[in-house]
Write a structure and sequence with these properties.
The protein is of the alpha+beta class and about 475 residues long. It has seven helices and 22 strands. Bound molecules: fe (ii) ion. Fe (ii) ion binds next to loops. This is Alkaline phosphatase D.
């Protein structure tokens, strides 16, 4: 049989850091955009054994863990390795090796090297850094934001959704909005093969690969990993729910195949809401705002109860919600305030319950709206005089174009919204027992991989209020 091409075209990744271990990921795809649904990634159907190594140093002179794992056609020859027995709060390097159909038996093919980092132990009070990204629509441009994020090597990266967009190429793309062609399938994703190829296209991007190889990721999804504006088992456009559930199951399977997750699909479900602990400093509660959604609940009853009980029981200095959607009230002048919005404004009853529970050091991290925002969370949004009980940092998109927004009117109508910036970028956070500091990074343009980055604003949090740090003494706006 002819030898296959280089299999690590989609890079490597790690995620879900615990004090004692992480998940490692790769997928064998010698022809990542192969058009045959029976040969995703250009792989033959048979299983392939993959070796993995974890080392204390980048040159792999001190390998501390190693093993093998079978990559099978059922999961598009992706592998996830649960590494355990590592030291907490420690940097490690990892790589994969294969022989078999790729090379002679005594000269394995080696993957790129990734850097990862374990979480600290439960009693740790050491500071940490995190990145926050979302909304990386491929057609809309390059990923200088991810390139700069990779260079910062945060302890952990949270992705809050719209990792891919399922859309096909528009018949008449708006000027400046189709910067990169959707190769490997330019139609809307509706099948497992189409979703697989869409993830593969994104993962071939060198800057997305660099960001995965630089730090462990903890991702959650929004709607475009499946379909625009879907809710639970409903497609959102009134079409057949049974057909949509098959599509959703395929989309979840493709998500699983491309992410360093601990969870695995079970029937039609993939449970990705979870807690990510950084000692006594921060508890990150990563939420799923799509899978269990209904007209009356954003999260579903089980996730709501899980979240409230975790928030009541946390011993951490900061309780951080990590999820896609705008949490603070946001009145948009000219829009019917009673209209159901794709944000927490559409589910005020549970938001009120959550705020009433007064979580310790409440911080919400979100995305979705494709601009940077910072907000104070009020005990009662209806009363401008009520105290701030927490803050929200909305991270802008990596590439996705923002909607038209009358920003001055929105800021005027919502005095608790303290900051807006309409450029693409990401958020960097620095968290300690004394401070929660967030910088809204912006790139000049997504027309070039090399576009420079700068900081639009840096905020701290004091008693539930935002304090501008980069221009001390000035008001937050
Ligand atoms: Fe988005």
């Amino acid at each position: 049989m002819a030898k296959l091409g280089y299999p690590f075209t989609l890079g490597v990744a790690s995620g879900e850091p615990l004090p004692s271990g992480v998940i490692l990921w790769t997928r064998l795809a010698p022809e990542p955009l192969h058009s045959d649904p029976d040969r995703p990634g250009g792989m033959p159907e048979r299983p392939v054994e993959v070796q993995w190594q974890v080392a204390a140093d980048e040159a792999f002179t001190r390998i501390v863990r190693h093993g093998t794992k079978w990559a099978t056609a059922d999961d598009a020859h992706s592998v996830r390795v649960r590494v355990d027995g590592l030291h907490n709060a420690t940097d490690y390097y990892y790589r994969f090796l294969v022989t078999g159909p790729f090379a002679a038996a005594n000269s394995p093919v080696t993957s790129p090297v990734g850097r990862t980092r374990t979480a600290p132990g439960p009693m740790s009070t050491d500071p940490l850094t995190f990145g926050l990204v979302s909304c990386q629509r491929y057609e809309h441009g390059f990923y200088p934001a991810l390139r700069h994020l990779a260079a910062e090597r945060p302890d952990v990266v949270f992705h809050v959704g719209d990792y891919i967009y399922e859309y096909g190429k528009p018949a008449n793309p708006r000027p400046g909005r189709y910067m990169r062609p959707l190769t490997g399938g330019a139609a809307e994703c509706k099948t497992l093969h189409a979703y697989r190829n869409r993830y593969a296209l994104y993962r071939m991007d060198p800057d997305l690969q660099a960001a995965h190889a630089a730090a462990p990721w903890v991702p959650t999804w929004d709607d475009h990993e499946v379909r625009d504006n879907y809710r639970g088992g409903l497609p959102g456009d009134g079409s057949d729910p049974a057909a949509f559930m098959r599509r959703r199951t395929d989309a979840y399977q493709a998500y699983f195949e491309h992410m360093p997750l601990r969870a695995a699909p079970a029937e039609e479900a993939l449970q990705i809401y979870r807690r990510c602990s950084y000692g006594e400093v921060a508890d990150f509660m990563v939420l799923d705002v799509r899978q269990y959604r209904s007209d009356t609940s954003m999260l579903g009853a089980a996730q709501e109860e899980w979240l409230l009980s975790r928030l009541r029981g946390t011993m951490a200095r900061w309780s951080v919600l990590v999820q896609p959607l705008f949490f603070a009230k946001r009145v948009i002048p000219g829009r019917d305030p009673g209209a159901r919005s794709d944000a927490w404004d559409g589910y005020p009853a549970f938001r009120d319950r959550l705020i009433a529970a007064r979580p310790r050091g409440l911080v919400v991290l979100s995305g979705d709206v494709h601009d940077h925002w910072a907000a104070e969370i009020k005990a009662d949004f209806a009363d401008p005089a009520s105290p701030a009980v927490g803050v929200e940092f909305v991270g802008t998109s990596v590439t996705s174009k923002p909607p038209e927004t009358d920003v001055p009117a929105v800021l005027a109508a919502n005095p608790h919204l303290k900051f807006h910036d309409g450029r693409r970028g990401y958020v960097m956070g620095k968290v300690s027992m004394d401070s929660f500091e967030v910088s809204h990074r912006v790139v000049e343009s997504t027309d070039s991989r090399e576009s420079p980055v700068s900081t639009a604003a840096t905020f701290g949090v004091e008693d539930g209020r935002l304090v501008r740090k980069d221009k001390p003494g000035t008001p937050a706006v």
